[in-house]
Amino acid sequence: MSRPVAPRVPWETVLDRLSSLYHTGDWRVPYLRDHAENPFQVLIGTILSQRTRDANTDRASAALFARFPTPEAIAAARTDAIERLIRPVGFYRAKAQNIQECARALLLETGGAVPDDLDALLSLPGVGRKTANCVLVFGYGEPAIPVDTHVHRISNRLGLVRTRSPEETERRLERIVPREYWIPINPLLVQHGQNLCRPHTPRCGECPIREFCRTGRAWERRRTGPVGRATGRG
Ligand code: SF4
């Protein structure tokens, strides 16, 4: 079980610095004002993105939605036609099956409308917490914290959480992050994880939020630690 660390984080400053670094615009602007996205396509695109690089997800999503843009079209399509279109993503055969089951379940349960409720989303085939939270944030502009590997890793490096799984990180973040900051957390930390706070080699020396980061402060101490401590020993 994670030990509460009750970090004090100046969220406004952290989010300002990251959005300025990655030129994402003002995170205070309601997300859907500048990023209107179709909830169905967010849902299917997020299923496609699991364990796949963004560029490949984008290629597969564009090809799929150009031919089959709606739940009706995906549900009625031949599975092998979907497989061919989404081949750039990993596990494309399993994902083709998942997205068809998901489209069919939506048609059965809601007439094709994507729910804006976490539990209803989680009841759909192939939909886990990260996907459901992505639909809430990117499809509906509702406060939620989708936790992928980047958000999980960076939250631990920052010292916000000490957790072993993205699900645990999500639960902990929801307790400690004020709700008004939930929406920008995923897009900004994902950018940070793809650029500076990389999985194996975080570039702490270039990081604008280092002073608020447990790992960054440790990096700083190593850099400025007593010179010559080791030099007097044989
Ligand atoms: S200081 Fe280093 S570990 Fe911390 S957020 Fe920045 S890059 Fe990541």
In a few lines, what is going on in this structure?
This protein is an all-alpha fold and 234 residues long. The protein is 58% helix and 0% strand. The chain folds into two domains: 11-29 and 144-222, Helix-hairpin-Helix base-excision DNA repair enzymes (C-terminal) (Endonuclease Iii, domain 2), CATH 1.10.1670; 33-140, Endonuclease III, domain 1 (Orthogonal Bundle).
SSE blueprint:
Blueprint: H1 11-21, H2 31-34, H3 39-49, H4 54-67, H5 71-76, H6 79-85, H7 92-110, H8 118-122, H9 129-140, H10 149-158, H11 166-176, H12 182-195, H13 214-224
The structure holds iron/sulfur cluster.
What is the CATH homologous superfamily assignment of the largest domain? Hypothetical protein, domain 2
* Average pLDDT level: 92
Q: Which structural class best describes the helix and strand composition?
A: mainly alpha
Order of helices and strands: HHHHHHHHHHHHH
CATH architecture assignment of the largest domain: Orthogonal Bundle
Instruction: Please report the number of helical segments.
Output: 13
Largest sheet: none
What name is given to the CATH topology of the largest domain?
Answer: Endonuclease III, domain 1
Low-pLDDT runs of 5+ residues are 228-234
